[in-house]
Design brief:
Number of helices of chain B: 3
Mean pLDDT of chain A: 85
Number of strands of chain A: 0
Distance between the termini of chain A: 47 Å
Helix content of chain B: over 70%
Oligomer: heterodimer
Order of helices and strands of chain A: HHHHHHHHHHHH
Largest sheet of chain B: none
Low-confidence stretches of chain B: none
Radius of gyration of chain A: 22 Å
Radius of gyration of chain B: 17 Å
Shape of chain A: globular
Low-confidence stretches of chain A: none
Largest sheet of chain A: none
Helix content of chain A: over 70%
Structural class of chain A: mainly alpha
């Protein structure tokens, strides 16, 4: 019953966000949508995803969208009737085809059983962290590469002078007090990822949320440009270094030896946490 | 009951596809792509729950975690591109 209410609220907020004429309104409804989907992830027993969704999917995406709706004046295009009809028919057909899936779906044993079977070999106790950093390490390595590339693209594109300026003394005081606490807590969550709910991306997105507060106050971190970039690129370097080091020793690319696996995963996770925070901080600020 | 999650994800996917094609503003399109992504993630997580065993499957969870982070970085890059585009149009 609760799930049905959350689902209906998700649908309504998505519709309101897409339908409203005012960009500010649709941004606010998008925050509601992200929050509701976070609640639904918890109901679907996926608390790891819920943490990332609420911080990244709703909060930080909305900050980015607000930044866009302030900076962009006139990029609207004229809608045409045939285009609307074509799109409506297409999405209706898409929906009908997708609902055919419901007739074939059934409960079956999936690849998850294999993960729980081999969990003792991975070096961590949490199955999601084991999949992310050990069994499917390639995916995570490439994911870190994708975020780094996106930020390099942003740094290349941003104009020299700023088109927008945030300035708020209350937010500045708030972030001055809470940023150290948030940073410490994000490292704790990263550490916790080895045993239960938590992990590198959860910790990193929490750190990014704290740094987003700092950006919104108009201030910046008291470190120079090069160390910030260094911290942002740290995780890719650490990840690749570990992968190649074990390959050279003879274990294979991204194959940790059993006795060192917990330590390697911990070090990689902490570097991912710091880098994700820094990369998203640069992404929100636009430039250093 | 489990079918409802799938139905919700299909509704989100098809609705945001329509708005992605017809929206008159690029910001709306960006929001539509994000909602489409959420629909796909919901499909994955619903699949992860659809097992006879007690624990949900961790592999789709890890994939969705990766997907959300990549979606946010792609959104950030898209925001930069659109700001750049609008600046260029102002200069013309």
């Amino acid at each position: 019953m609760l799930d049905i209410i959350i689902g209906l609220l998700m649908l309504l907020s998505a519709f309101a966000s897409l339908q409203s004429k005012d960009l500010l309104k649709s941004g606010v409804f998008f925050v509601v949508f992200g929050f509701m989907s976070g609640l639904l992830w918890i109901r679907l027993s996926a608390p790891d995803i819920a943490m990332v969704e609420i911080i990244l999917g709703s909060a930080i995406t909305s900050i980015l969208i607000f930044k866009l709706s302030r900076g962009v004046r006139d990029i609207a295009m004229k809608p045409k009737l045939w285009r609307r009809l074509w799109a409506g028919a297409g999405s209706l057909v898409l929906f009908v085809f997708l609902t055919f899936y419901l007739f074939t779906v059934r409960e079956e044993e999936r690849v998850g059983g294999l993960v729980f079977e081999k969990l003792s070999l991975s070096g961590v106790e949490s199955p999601v962290t084991a999949v992310l950093l050990n069994f499917r390490g390639y995916d995570t390595l490439l994911e870190v590469g994708v975020i780094t590339l996106a930020v390099i693209g942003i740094l290349a594109l941003e104009p020299k002078k700023k088109s927008y300026e945030w300035n708020d003394i209350v937010v500045w005081r708030f972030s001055k007090i809470f940023l150290p606490v948030i940073a410490l807590f994000s490292l704790y969550i990263t550490y916790l990822g080895a045993f239960s709910v938590g992990g590198a991306f959860q910790g990193g997105s929490l750190l990014a949320g704290g740094l987003a507060f700092l950006s919104l106050s108009g201030q910046k971190l008291p470190i120079r440009e090069n160390p910030t970039l260094f911290l942002a690129m740290l995780s890719l370097a650490v990840f690749v270094a570990f992968a190649f080091a074990y390959a050279l020793v003879g274990h294979g690319f991204l194959t940790y030896p059993l006795e060192l696996s917990t330590l390697s995963i911990m070090l990689i996770e902490i570097s991912i946490c710091i880098s994700t925070g820094m990369l998203l901080y640069i992404a929100i600020r636009g430039r250093l | 009951m489990k079918e409802l999650y799938y139905l919700l994800s299909f509704l989100l996917i098809s609705m945001s596809t329509y708005y992605f094609i017809t929206a008159i503003n690029f910001v709306k399109r960006l929001i539509a792509v994000n909602i489409l992504g959420s629909g796909v993630f919901l499909f994955f997580v619903a699949t992860a729950r659809n097992t006879p065993s007690e624990n949900p499957d961790p592999v789709p969870h890890a994939l969705v975690l990766t997907g959300i982070v990549v979606a946010v970085s792609a959104t950030a890059f898209a925001v930069s591109l659109l700001l750049h585009l609008s600046k260029q149009r102002e200069e013309e």
